[in-house]
Design brief:
Fumarase C, Chain B, domain 1, Ribonucleotide Reductase Protein R1, domain 1, two-stranded antiparallel ribbon, mainly alpha, 4 strands, 3% strand, single chain, Fumarase C, Chain A, domain 2, elongated, 487 residues, 3 domains
Length: 487
């Protein structure tokens, strides 16, 4: 068993204790970040005269070979090692000898794991942001194609007023746009480097923390060594933002499920995103939407788990904090999977536009506009509200809609109705005359769509200054041999 702390102990760790304490099964996914941090640390040690150029080059080449061998499947990260840090250090020493033992100079596992988790989380924030942007592109494309697709709008799941599919999807565009803003906010707050904080009180070695922070694309070093190793609120903040993303996906999924039902028949989900029944051959189930809705609770659970873990911990590092990784990794994977699959489902939806328009007309969604028509004829609004209520009761009794009544029937309710009432309560009129910004009218929607298109066209550089590592990709590329000599 490879351990980094055996000198103090005279007995072997109990096997059950060792397994309970070990984190290699889940923190092995931090390999790229552990090596990235080690490379920056070693370059800094050499710059500060703590390592020789020969030692630095030996260590850097050894680290690079470990990363490449794992990537090629020649080296396996297994349970002989307590964690990813001991795996890297043990294999480095095996490859380059005593120089490898100097890798950990001026560093603790506490600031090392704090760095690895921050690097990995930063990457996940960027990946989620990219997936959100892709979803926004799909939503905006649907909006652009459906400015004139009329449908009922709802409150309390009751038909309320007519709107358009573009307007309805636009509500979700705003939600996911705010989710992207939360990603940016998280990056701004978390992008400081804890490396150099040591176990909790810094180190006596003359480290250049500004250099290591710059090498890894951070804005600068963290300013309190205790907070550096005990901080997980950036992760809590990210899990909270992911929970909000999932809440938005779940609400959207619920609507797709409803729209896909036989009672609504507003949409048809593509076969690629549906499943059947083992016993009922007629079934086409919206399983992806249902699973996204269901997995929302899983992400909520990760947030609550970490909040509960952290709530009673004294400063600084405590082993409890090892529990941050499994729940966080699961939440990261869940959200990324859900965003990708949901985007594919939305992109392939078929909208039954005639059915949507028919539903809007049959649900008295134009009742408010009929009342406004009476107000325009000089009837006080409160009286107009009561008159249209009577009209709706009449239609329900006759099993018809306002637009299908004859002028004589309308006049029997109130004499001010004229022929122009039919144009006033048409879906087109009801929607088009709503021109205030944010409303569903074509003119207003086209302005909003143009603003959204402009927003998505902007490429924002969240993390400038990281020339040596491509932090935007899922798996950072191994730098070319000798690149550190150019710095």
């Amino acid at each position: 068993m490879a351990q980094l702390w055996g000198g103090r102990f005279t007995k072997e760790t109990d096997q059950l204790v060792y397994k309970f304490n070990a984190s290699i099964e889940f923190d092995k996914r931090l390999l790229a970040q552990d090596i990235q941090g080690s490379i920056a640390h070693v370059i800094m040690l050499c710059r500060q005269g703590i390592l020789t150029d020969e030692e630095m080059n030996s260590i850097l080449n050894g680290l690079q070979s470990i990363q490449q061998d794992v990537k090629d499947g020649k080296l396996v990260i297994d349970t002989r090692y307590e964690d990813v840090h001991s795996f890297v250090e043990a294999n480095l020493i095996d490859r380059i000898g005593d120089a490898g033992k100097k890798l950990h100079t001026g560093r603790s596992r506490n600031d090392q794991v704090a760095l690895d988790m921050r690097l990995y989380t930063r990457l996940q924030v960027i990946v989620v942001d990219e997936l959100l942007k892709e979803l926004l592109e799909t939503i905006l494309k649907t909006m652009e194609e459906n400015v004139d697709t009329y449908m009922p709008g709802f409150t309390h799941l009751q038909k309320a007023q007519p709107t358009t599919l573009a307007h309805h999807f636009g509500a979700y565009f705003e939600m996911f746009k705010r989710d992207r803003l939360r990603m940016k906010d998280i990056l701004v707050r978390m992008n400081y480097c804890p490396l150099g904080a040591g176990a909790m009180a810094g180190t006596t070695y003359p480290l250049d923390r500004e250099l290591t922070a710059d090498l890894m694309g951070f804005y600068g070093p963290t300013l309190n060594s205790m907070d550096s190793v005990a901080d997980r609120d950036y992760l809590i903040e990210f899990l909270s933002a992911l929970s909000t993303v999932m809440m938005h996906l779940s609400r959207f999924s619920e609507e797709i499920i409803i729209w896909n039902s036989n009672e609504y028949q507003f949409v048809e989900i593509d076969d690629a995103y549906s499943t059947g029944s083992s016993i009922m051959p007629q079934k086409k189930n919206p399983d992806i939407a249902e699973l996204v809705r269901g997995k929302t609770g899983r992400v909520y659970g990760a947030l609550m788990s970490l909040l509960t873990t952290m709530k009673g911990l004294p400063l600084a590092y405590n082993k409890d904090m090892q529990e941050d990784k499994e729940v966080a990794f699961d939440a990261f994977d869940t959200v990324k999977d859900c965003l990708g699959l949901f985007n594919g489902m939305i992109a392939t939806l078929k909208f039954k536009k005639d059915r949507m328009a028919e539903s809007a007309m049959n649900g008295f969604t134009n009742a408010t506009d009929a009342a406004d028509y009476l107000v325009g004829k000089g009837v006080p609004f409160r009286d107009a509200h009561g008159i249209i209520g009577q009209l709706v009761l009449y239609c329900i009794d006759k099993n018809t809609s306002i637009d299908k009544l004859s002028l004589e029937e309308l006049k029997s309710i109130h004499p001010v109705f004229e022929e122009d009432i039919f144009d006033a309560v048409s879906l087109k009129t009801c929607v088009e005359k709503r021109l205030t910004i944010g409303a569903p009218g074509r003119e207003a929607m086209e302005k909003v769509i143009a603003l959204h298109r402009e927003y998505l066209a902007k490429e924002e550089d969240y993390l400038p200054g990281s020339e040596n590592y491509n932090i935007v990709t899922e798996e950072p590329d191994t730098p070319a041999p000798g690149w550190w000599q150019q710095i």
